[in-house]
Write a structure and sequence with these properties.
The protein is α/β, with parallel strands linked by helices. It is about 55% helix and about 10% strand. It contains 29 helices and 8 strands. Its EC number is 2.7.7.7.
Length: about 575
């Protein structure tokens, strides 16, 4: 007969042979014993925790010739045929490979037929979450009200993918991960029955690598036995499972404790060269430092150690650490583990974590040692200043700190760093004409659309206010925008060039902030006698100056000018609101 793997040969055939899951076993056995079984069950939990095995045992107990019984006898014809897989009334259905609605309808059509040789017709649907939505819908009504002779047992590792309408029609049993001691105990039974010598430290390494799954543990045990030959060794188990030896944990922990980062990185490099996964290493180190904390806080609970074995060297190492150091190291490794999920350079993250761990508990240097006399004098001066301010506040006075004048001067210098070209603006005003400012405003929107986004952003709060034949004044609402535009030579050249394309004139922009423009304009009107009360100037002038009162009132809106240009003045009528 061909060789069979341990997890197949030693599959439990009764509830008593199942490892762990006592909450599931007791509930099912009581239901069997008192005839309180229902029509649908949902077994959910991690892989290798006994879901399918429990379903088959439950099926045998339901159809056992000695029923009602809490355990199948495994001797009657029904129990034997179910164990061998030849019973036609117990149908195992793999939803992973038969997920279409057609397969589910074929099952539903046969549900109404009575069982051939047994009391119940039992459907065990494994990996039920793989069914399609249409298959779930086809199963739904039958699952809710099946014939009395039918029992459905659904098994899944991902219950969150099942529709709530399916879950609500089943009795749900959540299978838990098996503890390390339970896995070791089961492996001892298997090896004893197979007459194979074993080492409990080796079995502990295998159980830790199995991560709570019995099938994984038995598969790894099968590999280690095949690899080792006559006797299982720790080196063989570490090589097969990808774990590292406890001595390596000791060496790296002692190197980190001694702040010998070179030795720690060298040992890490050796582990990576040997094929160890940095992600797995981080997880193992978290478990190892957890074991150190456990021995520190509760020395009697050495049975709860997950990675380390209880030995004198481990206890001595635990005494060397402060609990705060272990807490900080675990915190660093936990954050590193999260960051590793999004990177392909996991080794670099592990090396960085070791550096952080060495520096995490570095002693804080005392600030009192080696203080210079100048620093002491400065501290004394600040203390006296604080006391003076506190006294002034207590007396109700508003204290102005001595640093305020210097700060105010710096603020004034930063505000006055842009020099307003007053003379240049006055030249534009002297030669300003309405036709030039209208030409600039009419083409303003078109030029804005041609500028780069960064340049156009500066002009969102800007407006042309005056123009001569060769220049125009550009007023900015915010001083910072005005300064940025004036300092950007590329912007000024690009803007002037675009404007020339549409107006035919090379207008040079002159920049001015809003507040400064109002003052310059007012001073220009006063100094040139352009007030509205100056009738002599008004009579002598054949054309109103753009900055006389009448000229200012008559200054055209750029949108009106654009509308008149497009449609003609005769067709544009302005209504004031």
């Amino acid at each position: 007969m061909a060789y069979q793997a341990f997890y197949r040969v030693y599959r439990p055939q009764s509830f008593s042979e199942m490892t762990g899951q006592s909450h599931v076993k007791q509930t099912l056995q009581n239901a069997l014993l008192y005839n309180k079984t229902t029509h649908a069950y949902l077994f959910s939990g991690p892989r290798g925790t006994g879901k399918t095995s429990a379903a088959k045992i439950f099926a045998k107990a339901l159809n056992c010739e000695r029923a009602p019984i809490a355990e199948p006898c495994n001797e009657c014809a029904a129990c034997k045929s179910i164990t061998e897989g030849s019973n036609t009334d117990v149908i195992e259905f793999d939803a992973a490979s038969n997920s279409r609605v057609e397969e589910m309808r074929e099952i539903i059509e046969k549900v109404r037929f009575s069982p051939a040789n047994s009391r119940y017709k039992i459907y065990i649907i494994d990996e039920v979450h793989m069914l399609s939505n249409s298959a779930f819908n086809a199963l739904l009504k039958t699952l809710e009200e099946p014939p009395e002779h039918v029992v459905f047992i659904l098994a899944t590792t991902e219950p969150h993918k099942l529709p709530l309408t399916i879950i609500s029609r089943c009795q749900r049993f959540d299978f838990k991960r098996l503890t390390q001691s339970d896995i070791v105990e089961r492996m001892v039974e298997v090896l004893s029955d197979a007459d194979i010598p074993y080492n409990e430290h080796v079995l502990k390494v295998i159980a830790q690598a199995a991560a709570g799954g019995m099938r994984d543990a038995l598969s790894l045990l099968d590999q280690v036995v095949s690899f080792s030959g006559e006797e299982m060794t720790m080196e063989d188990a570490l090589l097969v499972t990808g774990s590292i030896s406890q001595d390596m944990f000791y060496d790296i922990a002692e190197a980190l404790l001694a702040k010998d980062i070179g030795q720690a990185l060298t040992l890490l490099e050796k582990l990576v060269r040997d094929g160890k996964d940095p992600v797995r290493l981080v997880e193992d180190f978290i478990t190892f430092f957890r074991d150190l904390l456990l021995i520190q806080t509760a020395p009697d609970l050495h049975d709860m150690l997950e990675l380390a074995s209880h030995e004198p060297r481990f206890e001595e190492l635990a005494k060397k650490f402060e609990a705060s150091t272990l807490y900080s190291w675990i915190d660093v490794l936990t954050k590193t583990q999260q960051e590793m999920r999004f990177s392909n350079h996991t080794k670099i993250y592990m090396e960085t974590a070791l550096l952080k761990m060495v520096q995490a508990d570095a002693p804080v240097r005392s600030s009192a040692a080696g203080v210079s006399p100048e620093l002491e004098a400065k501290v004394a001066q600040l203390e006296s200043l604080v006391q003076e301010l506190q006294q002034q506040v207590k007396n109700g006075a508003v204290a102005a700190p001595s640093v305020a004048p210097a700060e105010q001067k710096r603020r004034q210098r930063s505000q006055s760093s842009f020099k307003i070209p007053v003379g240049r603006i006055q030249d534009v005003l002297k030669n300003a004409t309405k036709s030039d400012i209208q030409a600039v405003k009419t083409n303003w929107a078109t030029v804005m659309g041609q500028l780069q986004r960064s340049h156009a952003a500066l002009l969102n709060e800007a407006e042309p206010v005056a123009a001569s034949s060769d220049a125009f004044v550009l007023k900015f609402k915010y001083d910072i925008h005005c300064q940025m535009a004036a300092e950007n030579q590329t912007f000024a050249a690009a803007f002037s060039q675009l404007l020339q394309q549409y107006t035919g004139k090379a207008y040079t922009p002159v920049f001015v902030p809003d507040a400064s423009w109002l003052k310059i304009r007012e001073d220009f009107i006063k100094s040139n006698g352009l007030q509205s009360g100056n009738e002599e100037k008004k009579e002598e002038s054949t054309e109103e100056h753009p900055f006389s009162a009448e000229g200012a009132a008559a200054e055209e809106d750029p949108f009106i000018a654009e509308a008149e240009r497009l449609f003609g003045k005769d067709f544009v009528e302005v209504h004031e609101e």
